[in-house]
Amino acid sequence: MHLIETVNLSHAYRDSVRALDSVNFVAPRNLRIAVIGPNGAGKSTLFRHLNGVLMAQSGQVLIRGEPITKKNLKEVRKFIGVVFQNPDDQIFAPTVEQDVAFGPTNLGLDETTVMHRVDEALGLLDIEYLRHRAPHHLSGGEKKRVAIAGVLAMEPGVLVMDEPTAGLDPRGRDDLVRFVNSLWNQYGMTVIFSTHELDLVTRMADYVYVMDQGRILVQGTVPEVFEQEELLQRIRLDLPVIPKLCRSLRRRGAVIPVAYTLEEAENALAAALALRPRP
Ligand SMILES: Nc1ncnc2c1ncn2[C@@H]1O[C@H](COP(=O)(O)OP(=O)(O)O)[C@@H](O)[C@H]1O
Ligand SMILES: [Mg+2]
Fold first, then answer.
1. Would you say the CB of residue 20 lies under 6 angstroms from ligand 1?
2. DSSP state at residue 93
3. What is the pLDDT of residue 196?
4. Non-local CB neighbours of 220 within 8 Å, separated by 6+ positions
5. Taking a C-beta distance cutoff of 8 angstroms, is the pair 169, 189 a contact?
6. In tens digits, what is the pLDDT along the chain, a chain of 279 residues?
7. Which residue lies with its CA nearest to atom 27 of ligand 1?
């Protein structure tokens, strides 16, 4: 049984074209899953279905094998933590501490447990120092961390993030990558995120869904998906820099594999250039 599965999920907003068209999306346990696609592809609409912000009009959303209903909605939201694109939609308490405490308090946990969860979440995101600050005066990156901490304090089984790097500077982006990878490494957390920044995918995903116009065009491992350069170009997605460089060197006769991470690229080039091993 999958943690999340959508079966022929379709959605049309009022008088709009189909935002989702028969989407079959599966999230196996312990993977980092990227959903990529141009603006308007349907990524956010899909994510809104994963914790019942939108209910399936046609098709089904199964969470641990069960369709989402009004009755199990609370349970579903406890299990699937969604961080929406704009932290301002998610943060509303007067202080960071209160904001992060909101979710666990709502779950009916006692005050000691709530405070313990808040401490843990603030620690994980490295934002202890923001505890007593007013969220609305924080920077974009800080707000994003507060929103993520609020979701993690509910100890979800799956962390879903819609465009998590939107509004982050390069440093904020690096921090996010490091943090997500360590959640996945240390806790085996299942992570699902959307992005149109493909470099993020090579750094932070195991499996990729490509969406366009409400449909899933392809899915597969990072190499399987990025092999399909023409298809990605057709929907105006550019290859990440590293495989792009490897491919163009290969076209010019270089005998190197297509690398996806910086480390793979360094090793491939070092071998091709017959460099001595690192001291
Ligand atoms: N609240 C809404 N009301 C009407 N149409 C919407 C709404 N949200 C999204 N859409 C439309 O649905 C389609 C998919 O949008 P969205 O899921 O936001 O895509 P993405 O997140 O991939 O950019 C687009 O055509 C968009 O204009
Ligand atoms: Mg979106």
1. no
2. S
3. 85
4. 207, 208
5. no
6. 899 999 999 999 987 788 999 999 999 889 999 999 999 999 999 999 999 999 999 999 999 999 999 999 999 999 999 999 988 888 889 999 999 999 999 989 999 999 999 999 999 999 999 999 999 899 988 999 999 999 999 999 999 999 999 888 888 899 999 999 999 999 889 999 999 888 899 999 999 999 999 999 999 999 999 999 899 999 989 888 999 999 999 999 999 999 998 999 999 999 999 988 777
7. 40
The structure tokens listed for 238 are 């550019």
Which atom of ligand 1 is nearest to 163's Cα?
Answer: 21
Neighbouring residues of 184: CB distance < 8 A, sequence distance ≥ 6: 30, 32, 191
268 CB neighbour count, 10 Å cutoff: 19
When the pLDDT of each residue in the chain is averaged and rounded to a whole number, the result is 93
Instruction: State whether the beta carbon of 42 lies less than 6 angstroms from ligand 1.
Output: yes
Helix, strand, coil % (nearest 5) of the chain? 45, 20, 35
Q: Which of 74, 201, 84 is nearest to 146 (CA)?
A: 84
The whole-angstrom separation of Cα 110 and Cα 126 is 24
Residues 6+ apart with CB under 8 A from 107: 78, 154
Residues of the chain with CATH 3.40.50.300: 4-228
Phi, psi dihedral angles at 268 (to 5 degrees): -65, -45
Read off the tokens for 240.
């990440």
Per the document, the length of the chain is 279
**Other Cβ atoms closer than 10 A to 208:** 22
Q: Which CATH class is domain 4-228?
A: alpha beta
Distance 12 CA to ligand 1 centre (A): 9
